[in-house]
Amino acid sequence: MKSQDVAFWKEAINDEMESIMGNKTWKLVDLPPKSKPIGCKWILKKKMKVDGTIDKFKARLVAKGFTQKEGLDYFDIYAPVARTATIRTLIALASIYCLEIHQMDVKRLFLMES
Fold first, then answer.
1. Exposed, middle or buried by CB within 10 Å (0-12, 13-18, 19+), for 12?
2. What is the pLDDT of residues 7-49, one digit of tens each?
3. Under a CB-based contact definition with an 8 Å cutoff, are residues 17 and 60 in contact?
4. I need a labelling partner for 98 at 20 to 30 A (CA). Which of 4, 46, 105, 113 fits?
């Protein structure tokens, strides 16, 4: 926080914290016996425009998941990523049936407990 842009970074961090709190993405629970808490850290990044000027300051709070041990801290892995073959099939079908494809950018995505 010794940057000349400290005010912008604080605003980005506050925006991220408001989003986390507003979406109720976590709840406070007791730590299971013989478990260690997983740390977290801030990822700060400047998003640039095409002309090289700063578009926005982006802050994300991320868990240090690399400290987890399979079978102890987690059991299943899920990554919602589409395969290239799936995307190509979608584009091919849209072309065959003269359909439009719209792209959407999601600012924040939170998995909700059901």
1. buried
2. 999 999 999 999 888 888 878 889 888 778 889 999 999 999 9
3. no
4. 105
